[in-house]
């Protein structure tokens, strides 16, 4: 009976040692996972920081290629006008245009000031449109010229001094000379006057939101 007791104790000690080994192995595995996870997180943070640095430089390069960087802190204000429907000056047939116009201005304060002058501004736009032909308005150059004329007329209605586009007076003289007409009988073209500086125009652009010619 006394010889059996040591055998039983030895058998109990063996599982205890195996249990400790398993515990140690599990602890080692957990530590490895923590270390690997920490290293991965650190690497990911470095990649994000590098990407953020690259992102700060990327918009500057893009804007340098496509023009001046817009001032996002002070964006312009857009003032949409009610659509215009007007008969055109075509003589061959009755044609009309339906045009949607949005005026881009410097800030909201000036947009509110324009609203007080809106009846006069709309009248000027209607007068400009009614003198256009469908052929003029169907061409891109005609639309661009219309936008310029609307901008100048709206500016003058607001009391803002703007300049008319330059007209080259030398071309008619050259044409007359080519026809053989005497230069002495023709008045000499006037010299172009130096343009005086004008105040900055808070009306920036005229945009078309709708343009139908029928």
The SS-based structural class is alpha+beta
Give the N-to-C terminal Cα separation: 119 Å
Gyration radius over CA = 40 Å
| Topology order in helix (H) and strand (E) letters | HEEEHHHHHE
Annotation, overall tally of beta strands: 4
Basic shape? elongated
- Please indicate the count of domains: 2
Task: Give the percentage of residues in beta strands.
Answer: 5-15%
Task: Describe the 3D structure.
The structure is a single chain. The chain is an alpha+beta fold and 214 residues long. It has two domains: 1-67; 77-163 and 199-213, 2-Layer Sandwich (Tetrahydropterin Synthase, Chain A). The chain contains six helices and four strands; from the N terminus they run H-E-E-E-H-H-H-H-H-E. Strands 1, 2, 3 and 4 form a four-stranded antiparallel sheet that branches. Helix 3 runs antiparallel to helix 5 (140-157). The model is unreliable at 51-67 and 169-179 (pLDDT under 50).
List the helices and strands and how they pair.
Elements: H1 4-66, E1 77-80, E2 84-87, E3 96-105, H2 108-116, H3 118-130, H4 134-138, H5 140-157, H6 170-178, E4 203-213
Antiparallel strand pairs: 1-3, 2-3, 3-4
Helix pairs in contact: 3-5
Summarize, please.
With 214 residues, the protein is an alpha+beta fold. It is 55% helix and 14% strand.
Which tags fit this structure?
single chain, 214 residues, alpha+beta, Tetrahydropterin Synthase, Chain A, 2 domains, four-stranded antiparallel β-sheet, 4 strands, elongated
């Amino acid at each position: 009976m006394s010889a059996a007791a040591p055998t039983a104790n030895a058998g109990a000690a063996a599982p205890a040692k195996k249990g400790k080994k398993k515990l140690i192995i599990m602890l080692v595995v957990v530590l490895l996972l923590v270390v690997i996870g920490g290293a991965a997180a650190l690497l990911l943070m470095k990649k994000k920081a590098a990407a953020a640095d690259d992102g700060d430089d990327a918009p500057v390069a893009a804007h340098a290629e496509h023009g001046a960087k817009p001032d996002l802190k002070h964006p312009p204000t857009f003032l949409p006008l009610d659509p215009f429907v007007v008969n055109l000056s075509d003589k061959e047939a009755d044609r009309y245009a339906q045009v949607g116009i949005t005026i881009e201005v410097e800030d909201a304060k000036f947009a509110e000031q324009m609203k007080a002058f809106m009846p006069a501004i709309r009248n000027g736009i209607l007068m400009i449109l009614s003198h256009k032909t469908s052929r003029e308005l169907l061409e891109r150059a005609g639309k661009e010229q219309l936008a310029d004329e609307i901008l100048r007329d709206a500016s003058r209605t607001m009391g803002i001094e703007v300049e008319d586009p330059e007209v080259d007076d030398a071309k008619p003289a050259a044409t007359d000379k080519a026809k053989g007409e005497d230069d002495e009988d023709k008045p000499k073209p006037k010299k172009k006057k130096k343009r005086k500086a004008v105040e900055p125009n808070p009306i920036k652009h005229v945009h078309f939101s709708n343009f139908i010619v029928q």
